[in-house]
């Protein structure tokens, strides 16, 4: 589990370092990091872009590299424990987001547990997909694995583009949210840390 955690974290750190140095990282991470230069993405879009790259791309790769070949089946229990930890953070992140965008508290109250159920369902589906990625990648050798990761990066980047550029109706909604967000970028980051 410790090895999986380190490989998973290092995927993010390597992508961040590459981006800051002007180098190449995965396209999914480049999209997420590139959004910081623009004013209009809302905090939730930034979070979703990062989650998209880290869960939909990095988690499966990290699992496959932790337990290559036939070892992958033995990793399932540890993988699910990491998923439980991630699920446990949802409520905390929602509470922090209400400090950035106070109207979220009203929306959360009016939606009741339906909003929480939808978020947990979405996270569960993303983690299930990451496990499928791990099982597909684990038996592949280096070059075949890299080709499959490039295809996966294309799909994950396409999802990220939908988050970042949600169409005219979505853009209208996110702009209204953005105008209601409180604080500076630094203060928002401090809240979410």
Write the layout of secondary structure elements.
Layout lengths: L1 H19 L6 H8 L8 H24 L9 H13 L1 H11 L2 H9 L1 H25 L4 H23 L2 H14 L4 H8 L1
Describe the structure.
This protein is mostly helical and 193 residues long. It is built from ten helices and no strands. Helix 2 packs parallel to helix 8.
Give the gist of this structure.
By secondary structure, the protein is an all-alpha fold. It is built from ten helices and no strands.
Estimated share of beta-strand residues? under 5%
Number of strands: 0
- The secondary structure category is mainly alpha
* Beginning-to-end CA distance, first to last residue: 24 Å
Helix content: over 70%
Compute the average pLDDT: 89
Shape descriptor reads globular
Q: Roughly how many Å is the radius of gyration?
A: 17 Å
How many helices in DSSP terms? Answer: 10
Main beta sheet: none
Uncertain residue segments: none
Order of helices and strands: HHHHHHHHHH
List keywords for this structure.
193 residues, mainly alpha, 80% helix, globular
């Amino acid at each position: 589990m410790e090895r999986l955690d380190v490989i998973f974290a290092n995927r993010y750190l390597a992508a961040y370092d590459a981006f800051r140095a002007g180098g190449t990282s995965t396209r999914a991470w480049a999209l997420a990091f590139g959004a910081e230069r623009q004013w209009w993405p809302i905090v939730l879009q930034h979070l979703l872009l990062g989650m998209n790259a880290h869960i939909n791309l990095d988690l499966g790769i990290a699992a496959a590299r932790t337990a290559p070949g036939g070892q992958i089946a033995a990793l399932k229990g540890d993988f699910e424990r990491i998923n439980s930890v991630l699920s446990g953070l949802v409520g905390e992140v929602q509470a922090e987001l209400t400090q950035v965008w106070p109207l979220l508290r009203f929306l959360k109250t009016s939606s009741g547990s339906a909003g929480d159920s939808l978020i947990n369902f979405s996270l569960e589906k993303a983690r299930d997909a990451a496990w499928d990625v791990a099982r597909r990648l684990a038996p592949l050798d280096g070059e075949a694995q890299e080709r499959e990761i490039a295809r996966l990066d294309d799909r994950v980047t396409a999802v990220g583009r939908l988050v970042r550029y949600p169409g005219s109706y979505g853009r209208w909604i996110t702009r209204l949210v953005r105008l209601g967000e409180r604080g500076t970028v630094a203060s928002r980051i401090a809240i979410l840390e």
